[in-house]
Structure formats: C-alpha cells, structure tokens
Amino acid sequence: MKPWSPSASSKSPLLNTKSNLLTMIKKLLPLTAVAALPFVAMAADKAPIELEYPAPFLTGTPVPIVLPNLESAGAPQPTVMAPAGVENIAYEKEVTSSDDFPIIGELELVTDGDKESEEGYFVELAQGPQWVQIDLEKEATVYGIGLWHFHTQKRAYVDVVIQFSNDESFESGVTTVYNNDHDNSLGKGKGTDLAYIETNKGKLIPAKETKGRYVRLYSDGNTSNEMNHYVEVEVFGAY
C-alpha cells in the first residue's frame, strides 16, 4: 500500500483558505497605501514653528532662581508643528489687561512685533496676579504661542497660565494650554507645566490646535521681584 499523501483536492479545505486570504491581503495592500496618501500629504504640509530671537542683552546682577517646578537651564524648545504658511496672527491686535494703568510702557508693546527688552520695549504691570488679553478679532485655530516676559535678566515668572476662549470675560468655554501654577495659588487649577528661565529665546508653547478668539496670559510676579512684565506675545494660528 502506498503511503498516504495529500492530493490537490485534499489540500483545498485548509490550504485554499490560506491561499485566498493571502491573495486578498495582496490585493488590499495597494488600496491601504493609497488610502494613507492623504495623511502623508497632510504631514508633509506641516512644518515646525521657528521663533525669531532678538539679540541677547543681559544687565544687572542675577538673583538666585528658586522654584520647585523649574525647567532645567538650557532646555530646548519643544517642536510644535503647524501648517506651512501659518503666521503670527496676534501682530498689532488689541491688548487689554487687568491693570488699566501699566507702571512702565503701553499695552500695545505686547503685540508690536519688537522683542528687544530694554526700557521702552516692554510693559510692566503692578504686583500681584495680573493678566494681559489679546483679541484675535475672530475665532482661530492656534498651533503655538511665542512668549517673552523679560530677558535683560535671567529670571522665572510665577503662576503663568495661558487660556483661550470665545468669551471675552473668560467665564465660559475656557481652554487652558499652559499652567505652571504648581500649587493652584492663582485659582485656575493645579498646573503640571514647568516654570522656565527667561532668555532672549523666550518660550514656545504648544497650543494643540485650540480654537478661540481671545487669549489671556496670567502671571504673579517673578523670582527677581513682584512685578509682571511682557515684551512680546506671538500667536501662531489660522482663521
């Protein structure tokens, strides 16, 4: 008697199923690749936001910076992706503040496009919790924020919170994109973001495609004194 060996017909129940499955997969692979093309194109249309830095200019004697939630000195800027061509839509937009009468400078300096930090280029608000607010004029999708508080002396600003809303009074529809208030002393919630040392490079903050017409930035003094300062705020978004 001849040893049993599978014939073509006896192979069909299992092996034909595998063969059919492999054939289907091979046919689907090109379709999967084609379906992925729009996503590849979308990724290719995005580019990292690159801040333009003013020249460094340091004066005075540094004050020790002591905070429990301080970012390491020299930490790199985060990579924030945005569609190609996205620009600073905060440029020359109206700025209001919790301090109607700044001690130094005018609120217009916050969005005038000038990032130098000597006197005449920054606004100083009173001590205690204060905010500045930028009206983008209509709802925008925001990808990143460039922020310069002050950079003629290394320091870190305390209780920095950045929020968006379509409500001018920020009583509803508020989205927080940055919060380094580690103990909720500002009352906007306990934040997990790290405070950072101010330099001429400012800080690039991811906005996570948040939508809103108004952006409000809080602070409560800094590690050198109790005042609040702003050199420039840039908002990278699209309408």
From TrEMBL:
PROSITE patterns, alphabetically? FA58C_3
This protein's species is Pelagicoccus mobilis
* Chain ranges of the F5/8 type C domain: 79-238
> Which key words are in the record?
Signal
Q: Which domain of life is it from?
A: Bacteria
Q: Where is the signal peptide?
A: 1-43
Show the taxonomic lineage: Bacteria, Pseudomonadati, Verrucomicrobiota, Opitutia, Puniceicoccales
Q: Which InterPro entries match?
A: FA58C, Galactose-bd-like_sf
Q: What protein am I looking at?
A: Discoidin domain-containing protein
